């Protein structure tokens, strides 16, 4: 790497290929460049004018640059990766710290020192700290929210102590936890630690009485195929939470995006039967067991037990690419013509 000090008081760091990695202004507030670094004018240029020379005012030792000023010494050095992230945390830039951590996990280590050479070794070395960083962030935000509510309620932050004029704080609280949940999901998915997400992180949200909010945060990531599976206890909690809100169709859409091989098949099938998620049930048997007959028999049983009005149309939504080889089935049950149509959403 190459460090260049320019006349604007900027210390620029370049990689071997010439890419600029970082630019830092080292001039103190209230000073101009001429006052921030010593120079001499013993030499003149070809026009006879004095030329400023800084060669005795800048020194480099290892990864540290020393810049001599008229009344102070500026020391600038490349920070080890952990110190760099900690510096961002102390400055309150948690998002910058977590972004830096994910870049290190991906192997973008230019501009930092004290890391192994291979990507696998880097990930192994920094993984414990990444988990600690995420949990520290969640704890920091939770404490901030608790203090904010406490200042308004005077009752230790109890939500039921809010007066009507402060009900907006509850909405703000949920929004804060939703943002934290989104950061936690993306961070854990990025570093491949879903076990931390569904264990420690979920427990923290439950302790903060925001477990339902955490489950709702998972939905868009499931629909984007970023979360292909859920542990049994999370799946159970998701179905129960969405069922209580009347969002069973949204649960069904989530199931249609899951990797069946990583699910507790029997549990998910049981939940689908209990809540009438027949589209998801067909998807599970079709994709998981290549079984077209069992879900069809269950549908026919449901139709036979339904009223004449309810048995007229059944529309089953399946994800794109799923083929049942039975696009439309027309049946005669108790003199009622029943059409079962399979379509994509």
From TrEMBL:
Pfam families membership: TPR_Vps8 (PF12816)
InterPro entries noted in UniProt: Vps41/Vps8, Vps8_central_dom
Superkingdom of source: Eukaryota
Annotated ranges, domain Vacuolar protein sorting-associated protein 8 central: 213-307
Record's GO cellular component terms: HOPS complex; late endosome
GO biological process: endosomal vesicle fusion; protein targeting to vacuole
Database matches in PANTHER family: RING-TYPE DOMAIN-CONTAINING PROTEIN (PTHR12616:SF15), VACUOLAR PROTEIN SORTING VPS41 (PTHR12616)
This protein's name: Vacuolar protein sorting-associated protein 8 central domain-containing protein
Protein's organism: Aegilops tauschii subsp. strangulata (Goatgrass)
Organism placement in taxonomy: Eukaryota, Viridiplantae, Streptophyta, Embryophyta, Tracheophyta
């Amino acid at each position: 790497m190459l460090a260049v000090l320019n006349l604007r008081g900027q210390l620029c760091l370049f990689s071997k290929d010439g890419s600029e990695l970082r630019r830092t202004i080292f001039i103190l507030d209230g000073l101009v460049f001429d006052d921030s670094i010593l120079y001499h004018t013993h030499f003149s240029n070809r026009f006879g004018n004095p030329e400023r020379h800084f060669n005795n005012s800048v020194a480099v030792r290892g990864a540290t640059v020393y810049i001599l000023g008229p009344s102070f010494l500026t020391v600038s050095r490349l920070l080890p990766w952990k110190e760099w992230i900690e510096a961002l945390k102390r400055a309150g830039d948690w998002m910058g710290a977590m972004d830096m951590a994910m870049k290190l996990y991906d192997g973008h280590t230019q501009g930092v020192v004290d890391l192994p050479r291979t990507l696998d070794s880097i990930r192994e070395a920094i993984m414990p700290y990444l988990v600690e960083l995420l949990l520290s962030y969640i704890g920091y935000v939770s404490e901030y929210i608790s203090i904010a509510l406490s200042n308004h309620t005077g009752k230790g932050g109890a939500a039921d102590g809010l007066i009507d004029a402060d009900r907006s704080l509850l909405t703000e609280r949920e929004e804060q936890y939703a943002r934290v949940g989104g950061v936690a999901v993306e961070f854990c998915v990025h570093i491949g630690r879903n076990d931390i997400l569904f264990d420690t992180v979920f427990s923290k949200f439950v302790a903060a009485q925001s477990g339902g909010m955490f489950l709702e945060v998972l939905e868009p990531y499931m629909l984007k195929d970023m979360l292909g599976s859920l542990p049994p206890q999370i799946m159970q909690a998701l179905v129960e939470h969405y069922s209580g809100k009347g969002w069973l169709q949204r649960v069904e859409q989530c199931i249609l995006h899951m990797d069946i091989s990583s699910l507790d098949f029997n549990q998910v099938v049981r939940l689908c039967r209990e809540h009438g998620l027949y589209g998801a049930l067909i998807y599970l048997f079709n994709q998981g067991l290549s079984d077209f007959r069992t879900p069809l028999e269950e549908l026919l049983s449901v139709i036979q037990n339904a009223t004449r009005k309810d048995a007229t149309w059944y529309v089953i939504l399946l994800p794109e690419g799923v083929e049942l080889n039975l696009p439309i089935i027309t049946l005669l049950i108790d003199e009622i013509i029943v059409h079962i149509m399979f379509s994509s959403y």
